[in-house]
Design goal:
The protein is 36% helix and 23% strand. It contains 18 helices and 27 strands. Strands 14, 18, 19, 20, 21, 23, 24, 25, 26 and 27 form a ten-stranded mixed beta sheet that branches. It is globular.
């Protein structure tokens, strides 16, 4: 990165975020099995990074694209820097895993142990009943070329000898093969399928001498852009896209460190990967599988807790009357997302409800919310759903949901061509005493009953008439492409969010120039949009204090004299994934607070339908301010950005963890 720019490369900033995730695996305050989970999360994050971000940069490099990014790097330079950092992180992950394995072994949990003779009876059965019947070895020859290895498919490469001749064979482990087998003897063993297979290769190749065997795993480019302009059938285009995504070029090869250089060179010519794409792994390849071990001993995990219902609500209460009495604001996972599920269920069964409208970006399998939407439609209620088919890695599930919703009688649309619908909204229309009452739900997170337990998000539910009108207009816009009218509470990208944020920052600049208090707090997942960053720099130069609370990527160096000296950047990484998006502006003492689905990213501002909503009710503003205040106070799970590097801000005095405090308050 050029020393002349205050900007940071997005990909390197993301790798720094994933490093923070990895470092949770060495935090002694984190229970032992949870440390293993952070290794798995780190690995899963890295998989997606290579598939999408590295894959996209490789496409740019191959196309001869030389335009520099915000930090002044070309795609080629970015790939070089990524390779250096990613190799370093992969080595660090291995060192941490080795220690965590050792600590777990002392607790009676053996992960990927040597397949010792005392386990023979069990491994015999695993091989003969689970593995051998479904594998298909391919011994390479002029008539048997190297088979195509799909994305993330683990393989065992075998060197064989027969007489004086050497042979090479590859066994691609099937997707439906169980990866880890739990065996309970004197301790609990977690045995990996590839280790069992390697032990019994002599039965797979009975006429050969087994010289050696090596594991490898391919990561392929999945950044295949969907061209939807002119696509008459978006559903069909998505289905076609899902098939092609699996066959992208190789952007990473994880291999056993014992693999000889000559075989690696031969594989490179057969499979088409580069030297920098190779990542040597000396233990378990694909640590995402470690999720299967995490719940083995509850005493080695985080202490469970029961989320609270909104204050003053009881099961016997009329949920609609409760919402009308006071706007409901909840902070997941500390408040129970099942309140939202119950709201949809009540709406489904309530004869006074005439319509239910919802946007769906990500929904879980077996979602009670989706089931109740279908039930409501079958009972004759008007149910309309805007479902985003292009939600990355949830495309297939959303295609299935779309088909089921339509079959049940829901009106299903797929948003707006060229834009992802990322706004999270629910509208329930109820006829009460001859008049229409609208119940609006606005959220920073998805209607996903699973991730609601592990992501922090804000849910805001109100029967306010003006908000209800904006909600109705939003759905008309999404489903009918109607014009955005003069909405009272909603700002929508790509039309108005960026402009509104620039206007709010300009107001703070004016206050600073008058030597009045000027303060901005932005809590989001990512900060990279250049126009907003340039405006933040201008505000800092004017004397505006800006605190960024950014979980993931941040494209701005704080603390540069004359540029960003009034800006701080912090990141909280802990038990829950910080996903809430809250924005605060002092505004001359009016203290304006907004909820939003939009990060400070070009895609969120220009290529997605996002919502920015100003919160006016004082109890809700106080609720959100308390979250921001606790985030700023956290000194246990906070990292502070200093230049381009993050430093852990951990104090032994007056310890305060925002996430722990929220749990303790339940």
């Amino acid at each position: 990165m050029s020393e002349q720019t205050p900007f940071i490369n997005r990909e390197l900033s993301w790798l720094e975020f994933n490093r923070r995730v990895l470092m949770e695996a060495v935090d002694k305050d984190v229970p032992l099995l949870e440390r293993l989970k952070f290794l798995a999360i780190f690995s899963s994050n890295l998989d997606e990074f290579f598939m999408i971000r590295v894959g996209g940069l490789k496409d740019q490099k191959l196309a001869g694209y030389t335009k520099v990014d915000i930090s002044g790097m070309t795609p080629k330079q970015q790939l070089e820097n990524i390779s250096e950092r990613a190799h370093e992180l992969t080595t660090l992950r291995q060192e941490i895993f080795t220690q965590v394995k050792k600590d777990l072994d002392a607790e009676g949990i053996a992960i990927a142990p040597e397949v010792e003779p005392e386990l023979d009876d069990i491994t015999d059965a695993i091989f003969n009943e689970e593995i051998y019947p479904i594998i298909s070895p391919v011994t390479l020859s002029p008539t048997n070329p190297m088979p195509f290895i799909y994305n993330f498919r683990l393989s065992v490469y075998v060197v064989l000898k027969k007489g004086k001749d050497l042979f090479h064979s590859i066994i691609i482990l099937p997707d439906n093969l169980q990866r880890i087998f739990r065996v309970r003897l004197d301790k609990t063993y977690f045995i990996f399928a590839e280790d069992v297979l390697k032990k019994y290769l002599y039965l797979v190749f009975p006429d050969f001498e087994i010289i050696d065997s090596y594991c490898l795993r391919v990561t392929r480019n999945a950044d295949l852009t969907l061209e939807e302009e002119g696509a008459e059938d978006l559903l069909g285009s998505i289905k076609k896209y899902l098939k092609t995504r699996r066959k992208g070029g190789i952007c990473r090869l994880e291999v056993d460190g014992r693999l000889p250089a000559d075989i690696l060179e031969e594989l490179a010519s057969l499979m088409g990967f580069e030297k920098d794409d190779v990542y040597v792994i000396d233990d378990v390849i694909d640590m995402t599988s470690l999720f299967a071990v995490v719940g083995e001993k509850q005493e080695l995990c985080y202490k469970p807790f029961t989320p609270a219902m909104p204050e003053g609500y009881s099961e016997s209460a009329d949920i609609f009357e409760y919402i009308k009495q006071n706007d409901v604001i909840m902070h997941r996972p500390y408040q129970d997302f099942s309140f939202v599920s119950k709201l949809v269920e009540k709406a489904c069964n309530d004869s006074s409800v005439v319509a239910i409208k919802m946007t769906i970006y990500r929904a879980n399998k077996n979602s009670t919310i989706m089931e109740n939407l279908m039930k409501a439609a079958r009972s004759g209620k008007h149910v309309s759903v805007v479902i985003e088919l292009k939600a990355r890695f949830d495309e297939e599930r959303n295609v299935d949901w779309a088909s089921m919703l339509e079959e049940a009688g829901c009106i299903v649309t797929y948003g707006i061509v060229g834009l992802k619908v990322h706004s999270k909204n629910l509208l329930i229309v109820r006829k009460e005493a001859g008049r229409i009452v609208r119940y609006s739900h606005i959220s920073t997170g998805n209607f996903n009953e699973i991730t609601a337990n592990i992501y922090t998000d804000i849910d805001y539910i109100t029967a306010d008439e003006e908000v209800g009108k904006d909600s109705a207009a939003l759905f008309n816009f999404l489903m009918g492409y109607t014009d955005i009218a003069s909405w009272q509470h909603f700002y929508l990208s790509p039309k108005s969010i960026k402009g509104k944020l620039l206007e709010l920052i300009d107001e703070e600049i004016k206050h600073a120039e008058k030597d009045e208090k000027a303060h901005i707090i932005i809590k989001v997942n990512s900060v990279m949009e250049k126009i907003l960053l340039e405006k933040a720099i201008k505000a800092s130069q004017a004397g505006v204090k800006i605190d960024f609370i950014v979980r993931g990527t941040c494209g701005l160096q704080p603390g540069i004299k004359g540029l960003t000296e009034n800006i701080t950047v912090r990141s909280i990484v802990g038990r829950f994934l910080e996903h809430s998006r809250i924005m605060y502006f002092h505004a001359g003492g009016r203290q304006r607070i907004f909820l939003t689905t939009a990060d400070w990213m070009e895609r969120n501002m220009d290529r997605r339908v996002e919502l920015l909503f100003e919160v006016h009710k004082q109890h809700a503003k106080d609720f959100l301010w308390n979250i921001l205040e606790e985030n700023m106070k956290d000194n246990q799970k906070t990292w502070i950005l200093n230049g381009v590097d993050y430093k852990k801000f951990k104090s032994g005095v007056n310890k305060f963890s925002h996430q722990k405090h929220q749990i303790d308050q339940i």
